[in-house]
Amino acid sequence: MADDTALAGTVAAFAAGTGPVAVDAERASGYRYGQRAYLIQLRRAGAGTALIDPIACPDLSGLGAALADTEWVVHAATQDLPCLAEVGMRPARLFDTELAGRLAGFPRVGLGPMTESVLGLSLAKEHSAVDWSTRPLPEPWLRYAALDVEVLVELRDALERELDGQGKLPWALEEFAALVDAPRPGPRVDPWRRTSQLHKVRRRRQLAAVREMWLTRDRIARERDVSPGRVLPDASIVNAALAMPLNGPALIAVQGFGPRTNRRQVDQWLAALQRAREIPENELPPAAAPHDGPPPPRAWADKDPVAAARLSAARAAVTALAEQHNLPAENLITPDLVRRVSWEPPATPDADAIGTALRALGARQWQVDLVAPVMAKAFGEAAA
């Protein structure tokens, strides 16, 4: 659907439907700049399946309002909710089938494996990595996209029964509510530090070169609306920063550039490298990213051996508890929370005080109930 008249009909149909609504979104990751949605798929009992072009219909707030009191069923909601919010669609209630699978202890939680293991159905995935910004979208791609919401509600119902049988359904409901209530993430601090292979860069001047080249690439990618990796791969940025070439021939000799690099591009990358050379020493980026938490765990033994012992004991206890409940340790409790409380524990590190600290850091109540007692015991054993 790609016009306002068809959209109005879809809004009316889905408002009149019954039960949860299955929602999915397709992005053009690896092809376009950013993470906007290029196709949105919906399915609801009594309304059928709808495929919406959010480029032709960029304001879907009316559809979002029509579904305001409806539970949304989404697979891997953290991936889709931001791009859905951009077009005016925000759920009030949510069931995340991927997260449900994690909590239920399934080893593979992609939509295809989950559908196969839970429902015994196979989903075709041959178009999963296509460029969804293509217009018009080929008919086989549209059929493939529709299948992603075809059985999502059925999968949701089966997972709800599984979680209920394991006594984990209240945990899942808390997690889903937290996803709905989570604030939209702000801009990332120093996003250039996510450049792959950055660990090879040791000198601050070279880090500055990575930053300047990354910013140049990001500007070009935004202007051209292409994925930054299609402008210049991360590995090429790192190689150039390590070599710090002074002229065009030297840059072309760096792995990842080569003779097919056009003159304008060569000039842009050389200008970025020159800016890095001219930065005063006291303004160079620090070797490590700024953060407000404890130091990296590998440094704990030297900085605070007592805290290191607490962390080691807490990690072991959390891992054992996660195995006992058949779920990933990172879903039982975020590793960062374990580190923070281990680094700065309450004055009296009993279960109540540790629970209060975990809640203040964003842990859900079910996590606190399970984890606080075992962390308190681990801290006590580490101090003995």
From TrEMBL:
CDD domains: RNaseD_exo
The HRDC domain, residue ranges: 203-283
The protein, known as: Ribonuclease D
Source species of the chain: Kitasatospora terrestris
InterPro entries: 3'-5'_exonuclease_dom, Exo_C, HRDC-like_sf, HRDC_dom, HRDC_dom_sf, RNase_D-like, RNaseH-like_sf, RNaseH_sf
Gene3D superfamilies on file: HRDC domain, Ribonuclease H-like superfamily/Ribonuclease H
Pfam families in the cross-refs: DNA_pol_A_exo1 (PF01612), DNA_pol_A_exoN (PF18305), HRDC (PF00570)
